[in-house]
Request: fold
Amino acid sequence: MGEPLLSITARSLYISSIAALLAFTASMALSLYVSSKSRRAVEVAASFFEALVGIPTTAVGLMVYMLLYPKGPLGILGILYTPYAIIFGEFFVALPVAFTLMIRHVYNVRELVRELILSLGGLERQSKVFLIRELSPILLSSYLTAFSRAIGELGVALIVGGGIEGYTNVLTTAIAIQTSIGNYEYAIYLGLILISITIAIISSLRALGEYVLWR
Amino acid sequence: MEVILKDVWFSYDGLTYALRGINLGITEPGLYIIIGPNGAGKTTLLKIVSLMMRPTRGAVLINGRDFWGLGDEEKALIRRNIVFVHDRPILLRGSVKYNVELGLRIRGAKGGDVIHYYVSRYGLEGILNKPTHKLSAGQAKAVSIVRALALRPPILVLDEPFTYLDEVRQELLLEDIKVRVKENVTTIIATHYMYKELLDISSNIVELTYGEVIKFIRDFNEFPMRSS
Reply:
């Protein structure tokens, strides 16, 4: 029998929620910047990130491994095979998903909100506050999708985390490792937990969003 | 407040011009009507008059000063005198109440009585708590008009104001425009249709054609007419 289920689950939630939050924040900043340019810039950026969504997480894991390898460009950080390495890698897995979900919305809503606020005698800077408020449902959606992508990926967690028991073992790596050693019952429990967490968090936050944000 | 457009050109894409060399003065209070076919540049012109879009070329003079050369704070103060209502209403997420109070909230002002008056006048009391995404097009338009009227702006700019509204609300809006004329404040309207009652009270009617020609109308019978 491996590490307690609760411990693996807590670690998974912690790592994925931070990776998703970082990816979400970067996407937001990038979306605001690109949407202030032109529609063409938005389309180019959206197409580029849409292509990145399809890259296998193992390929992302390999690239992140190259970066964090002791002799690699970021080897000096010494974070390979730590939870930080997984957060770093999952950031790149979640970023394209979060960005492609929000960029077109940000672009379309931005000008409308700006025009409305100016037309009512508001200031340019006020329009940014209203923009965030207006976009909050899609921002929530974007975060949740980034989180799902992060918590459900295996490639990065296995390659740069190593699935070290009690340290970098997350739900997906634990499932892979337990299955490979024939511990199917334990792997099934882990799988059920992963599915339940994903469904529970996403449906409850979405319901909360429906209730709060659309009122 | 005096708004003068001096040789204004505007391009959305840098290749073609939606407005070409427009010279127009909003110098006296009253009702100004801009008429023209689809794609004539009416909305673009209104947005430039409303100080929301900067001309590609030319100047917008406010009381003789180039608006786009002013500092942000001064621009914001001037903008408070002009309120624009979009053809397709823009409402924010939230309730009708939140949206009708938005203009006053942005300005940090209070105006419960004025809002109550217009909400009641346009029959919106029953839907004040309704989320805006559940409104019909006509209700949404009425909300955007009430939101603007409640600000009592010195210059009110209405883009196709009668679109989506039912006949009762069209009639109410006509009356409100007449009241504004009597109160000696400025209202600017862009429309496909000319209402006879508006003609009677407007001394400033201009035709815009493909952003190129702007002429002061004398013969009203040339244009599609609608009686309220």
The domain at 1-81+153-220 of chain B is CATH 3.40.50.300 (Rossmann fold). Residues 167-182 of chain B form the longest helix (16 residues).
